[in-house]
Amino acid sequence: MFENEEEKLAELRRQLEHISIPTEQLDGAIGQGYERAKIEKVKKKKRKIRNYGMLAATALLMITLATSIRVSATFANAVSSIPGLEKIVEMIHYDKGLTAAIENDYYQEINASQTKEDLTLTIDGVILDESGMNVFYTVSSEEAIQNVRVGNVELRNDEIISPSSSFSISANDQAVKEFSNTIDFHFQKPTKFNDLSFSLVMTIENEGKEIEYIIPFTVPENVKPSINFVLKKEVEIENQKFTIEEVTINPLRVDVRISINPNNSKKILQFPDLRLEDENGEIWGSRSGISGSEVGELEQIIYLQSNYFEKPKELFLRINKLQALNKDEAIVVVDTEKNILLNSPRDGRLQLGESSKTHADFFLTQAKDVNNNFSLTSIIQDANGKSISSPSTSMFYDSGKLESHWSLDFDTIDYKNPLELELLAYPNYIEGDIKVELKKPNK
User: Fold this and answer.
1) Cys staple from 254: which of 167, 294, 304, 372, with CB 3.0 to 4.6 Å?
2) Domains held by the chain: number
3) 111/215 same-domain check
4) Would you say residue 40 has pLDDT above 90?
């Protein structure tokens, strides 16, 4: 009975993973009727983090149906052989790379814990590679707990510099004695560790009280080496050129580095259907959580699910459509004091709601479903060229009015109107057929 709902939610998750929102904190609801939806928080570090979902700004939305989980027999057997891991099947079954890592015994048990004020935080295990670390954890109590919030997550090791992280800020919505979840850490550069000693720092808010945990732990085995393909292949869709520089396959994820031609007439916003595909048509698509990072204004890295443990005879990188706008349409200009939208995409769908010196609300009309969405940068420029930030961003979908909403708060009122905001995602597409074979990896 859940097949239709599961198909819709799976498609929604795929679409949400294709919008990027670099922001400090994600709050808000994504739409009516999705009570189990969780908006994931992305901590922005030195590199701008992109979350190709309604983002998720972003960051990060995970939607699952616990009543209709389907996993392979191999995966189910692998999970049943690891005590306690079956409780987090729901959180990872949607990611082929994570399930393959467990099937191939790449998950490493940790079982380190700390108890404070009747709450115990346990690091169940990790998956570690050169690109990052997934931490699986459990929070437990003798008494039932509800609406516990997780925050201020940090991974410490002398060999890594402030990795970015993606995690669910609202950990449980029902009264339970324990719940499990994951934290997805991304390293700024590929790292093979000399010292496998780490510390996880996390705060847990329960009944208005914030508790900090610091748990040291050691990973038993070092990382497997990545597989790298240097391509430097220039391609184009509707005369918009970009270069696929390289593809790096790690156990946790695939990194696709792309540079954009500065002479393009349009600004390429998103690569919504970028994917790996083998000779049988099996696809490894976008990931939940942090879905990419910007190396510079014209270069970005997009993350895909990993096929590291597969042995395809042929493997291709494929793209059939891009989100793109004319460059002059990709900048939204708004006077927050006069409540006037001065520049926006010419289709007229993007509208200004209420605005003031402290915040602005935007909405997209004719949004027939939650997949019709947009996102704005959290880095904003005023009339004098001064940069201001948006420390809080929220979004939701109004199914009654068929509108997708986006709201930003500003970190200061000391600025001069009008403000310029860059569109990071917008439902305007160009189409083509890009197919690049990955042949010989670098040694």
Assistant:
1) 304
2) 3
3) yes
4) no
User: End-to-end distance of the chain based on CA atoms, in angstroms?
Assistant: 49
| 170 has a pLDDT exceeding 80 | no
Place of tokens 């508790």: 211
Which CATH number fits the domain that encloses residue 241?
2.60.40.1640
Record the pTM: 0.79
pLDDT value of residue 202: 95
Separate counts of helices (H) and strands (E) for the chain: 4, 31
HSE-CB at 58 with a 13 A cutoff on CA atoms is: 34
Could you tell me if 302 and 433 lie in one domain?
A: yes
Instruction: Confirm whether 196 is domain-assigned.
Output: yes
Amino acid at 90: E
For 343-368, what is the mean pLDDT? Answer: 94
Q: What are the tens digits of pLDDT across the range 89-112?
A: 666 777 899 989 988 999 999 999
Shared domain check, 352 and 218 = no
> Which residues are CB-neighbours of 295 under 8 A, at least 6 positions away?
47, 257, 301
CA 406, CA 12: separation in Å to the nearest integer? 18
DSSP class per residue in 308-362: TT---S-EEEEEEEEEEEEGGGSEEEEETTTTEEEE--TTS-EEEEEE-SSEEEE
114: which DSSP letter?
E
Does residue 384 lie in a domain region?
A: yes
Q: For residue 89, report the phi and psi dihedrals to the nearest 5 degrees.
A: -55, -40
- Write the CB contacts of 95 (distance below 8 Å, at least 6 apart in sequence): 287, 288, 305
- Residues 418, 381, single domain; the answer is yes
Range of the domain at 232: 227-324+429-437
When pLDDT is cut at 50, 70 and 90, the band that residue 253 belongs to is very high
Mean pLDDT for the chain overall? 81
Residue 387 per-residue DSSP state: E
Q: Is 352 within a domain?
A: yes
Ramachandran angles phi, psi of 312, nearest 5° = -70, 150
Q: What is the rounded average pLDDT of the residues 353-374?
A: 86
Same domain, 111 and 177: yes
Give the pLDDT confidence of 200-222 residue by residue, as tens digits. 999 999 888 999 999 999 999 99
Q: Is residue 74 part of a domain?
A: no
Best CA proximity match to 49, nearest among 295, 272, 292 = 292
pLDDT tens for 302-314 read 999 999 999 999 9
Token representation of residue 325: 């706008």
pLDDT band at 141 (very low <50, low <70, confident <90, very high): very high
Domain harbouring 187, CATH code: 2.60.40.1630
Give the Cβ contact number of residue 438 at 10 Å. Answer: 17
